[in-house]
Amino acid sequence: MTTTAPARTTATASARPSALRGAPSFEGVLAAAEAISSTLPATPAWEYPLLNEAVDSRVVVKHENVQPIGAFKVRGGVALMSALTPQERRAGLITVSTGNHAQSLAFAARAAGVDATIVMPVSAPRVKADAVRALGATVVIEGADMSAAAAHAMTLAGRDGLHFVNPGNETAIIHGHGTVYLELLREHPEIETLYVPIGSGSGAAGAILVRDAIAPHVRIVGVQAEGAPAVHRSWSSGRVTTAPIDTFASGLATGSGFEVTLPILREGLADFMLVGDDLLREAMRVMAASAHTLCEGAGVAGLAGAMADASRTGVVGFACTGGNASGEEIRELTARIGQ
Ligand SMILES: Cc1ncc(COP(=O)(O)O)c(C=O)c1O
Fold this sequence. Notes:
Helix content is 46%, strand content 13%.
């Protein structure tokens, strides 16, 4: 896997920034697909006989782990960068992340020649902080969890005049993430149920925009970690709600719901499941053993949802959204793999 940012490009200048940053829409996803196309080629989607056996269904896996940062989030960063105003570019960006959104913005900012500062909570895996630094962004480790880190990022944004990028509420990012499912549902219209991991809900919201426009027969099921249920609680109550965080899956470790994604999830999810860390670890094992793929915990949430869903029917689709497993995740995985 390479983490080399592409040469600076002006190809994205032809994208339609207004569609990208307006209200979430399918047109925004199409604009994002155009904006990222010169930087990020479409990722493969494969089926694996052993995985089909393990899940007892046909399963199509979309491989976002092969993205240059090892996760689907790079789509959102590249889409966002193409839609920034000249003032925002000059000011520089600041955001908050446990890792993959951080790498995404660092990668995209470097390619666009924009300064990026990333605030990461102390719980963020070191391998991800190292990757962000290597991509040229400034890393600030601060806060016990995402909420504390976000508060710090907003303070720095005010103090230093930086443009704060909210990872869950920025429509250009939602549109960028929707391109995963644009590719998947165009290539595999036979998919009947799509299981989508939820941290902030940006990927799931993008999936819903795409489904509504091109594949209305597809059921979308959100999957979040039992140990970090803020978006699930927000979805159930209809109000943005906070919740404690206790999961090893850093990509799912969000402590609050998000205003922009919440109504889309409320309207568009057929179901919303919570899965335990043990099932996420088991899904990591299944992906390694049956699909030759190293996924991080958040990256297998879709599969874990499919495995746990007693009402599952028909062809299943999910994206391995990330492969950036921490040292601890890899140690746990190898202990489970056996012979
Ligand atoms: C690998 C991975 N999968 C899933 C998610 C959750 O995505 P979202 O925040 O769009 O809900 C994240 C978030 O960082 C992630 O890194």
